[in-house]
Amino acid sequence: MKPLLSANVVIAKWRCDPAFTAAYDALEEEFALAVQTISTEPSRLLNEDIEQ
Asked: Positive or negative, the Cα torsion across 35, 37, 43, 48?
């Protein structure tokens, strides 16, 4: 059985692949939106839904 690799090692290998890097970079806006949504207080999200 092969030894397990850490996520950092696997991601570093993936980042060497130009196709992976291009696809990952193309998702920058989606990642930023996800971070913003996750960091928003849940009560604020509910209030925004009601106000719209």
From this structure: positive
**Could you tell me how far CA 24 lies from the centroid of its own chain?**
9
7 SS3 class: helix
* Predicted confidence pLDDT, tens digits, the chain (52 residues): 888 989 999 999 999 999 999 999 999 999 999 998 888 777 766 665 555 5
41 secondary structure, DSSP code:
-
Q: Domain boundaries in the chain?
A: 28-52
Helix then strand then coil, % of the chain, to nearest 5: 75, 0, 25
Give the C-alpha separation, 3 to 11, whole Å.
Answer: 16
